[in-house]
Amino acid sequence: MELNSIVEALLFASQEPLGVPQMCTAVKETAKDILQAATESGEAGEGAPVPDWVAPLAEVTEETIRASLDALIARYEQEKHSFTIVERANGWRICARGEYAEWCRALYPGKKVQRLSQPALETLAIIAYRQPITKAGIEAVRGVSVDTMVQQLVDRGLVKIEGRADLPGRPLLYGTTEAFLDHFGVKSLDDMPNAQELRRVKLPTAEEGQAQNTESPAEQLALAPVASEEAPAAAEETPAGE
């Protein structure tokens, strides 16, 4: 039994994404348990010998696990499997490829693909690139009230309340969630397009918002429309075993 096969089995058996440290611990601890059980059986004069490939697994590293993940992805690609392994913010998972999304969606007839509107995308982009940010800060960029848009994003689990700003009235601060990363298929906020550059774009403040033209910054920060996380509309949204 090879390490690649063990990693594949762990991913297949898990209903949630698995981190590399989790997989590494599972492999090492299991190997140690097998070796210990074999030693105790040997001392008692019973039990079969342990296969040679088990002992090295007791010393496996996270780098080795990552190498196994890369090898599995390459094999799936070479053999043209209908699934692959993808990394998300909270770990790795086995998912169906994007070209099979329509077929997989048939398993969820009650869930329709819901796309974010352009105003919602603009609001979400401002939050994503400049979080934590208050509603007043968002409105200074968009030039319109964002109460409805922010509430919709919160209801869909893409945005959350991060706390309160140290400003008069203690307004709420908003930031993105892990569901946001999964929704757009990125591992972290740094993986967003032009993340570092757009974070440095000078935006109007709440006090300046009414006196400035805010169309350009909003367009600069806009995200591309994508399918909702509520249906398996892309490869990464159709995990095996669900």
Could you give me the name of the CATH homologous superfamily of the largest domain? Answer: Winged helix-like DNA-binding domain superfamily/Winged helix DNA-binding domain
Q: Low-confidence parts lasting 5 or more residues at pLDDT below 50? A: 209-215, 226-238
Count of structural domains: 2
Share in helix: 40-55%
Total E-strand runs: 4
Structural class label: mainly alpha
Query: Which fold name fills CATH's third level, the topology of the largest domain?
Result: Arc Repressor Mutant, subunit A
Quickly list its features.
mainly alpha, two-stranded antiparallel ribbon, elongated, 2 domains, Arc Repressor Mutant, subunit A, 242 residues, single chain
Kindly describe this structure.
- The strands form 2 sheets. The chain has a two-stranded antiparallel ribbon with strand order 1-2.
- The radius of gyration is 24 Å and the shape is elongated.
- The protein has 2 domains: 3-105, Arc Repressor Mutant, subunit A (Orthogonal Bundle), CATH 1.10.10; 118-221, Winged helix-like DNA-binding domain superfamily/Winged helix DNA-binding domain (Arc Repressor Mutant, subunit A), CATH 1.10.10.10.
- α1 packs across α4 and α6 crosses α8 (147-155).
- Residues 209-215 and 226-238 have low confidence and may be disordered.
- 45% of the residues lie in helices and 10% in strands.
- It has helices at 3-13, 20-43, 54-57, 62-78, 101-105, 118-130, 135-142, 147-155, 178-184, 195-199, 215-221, and strands spanning 83-88, 91-96, 159-164, 172-176.
- It has 11 helices and 4 strands; from the N terminus they run ααααββααααββααα.
- The longest helix has 24 residues, at 20-43.
- The chain is mostly helical and 242 residues long.
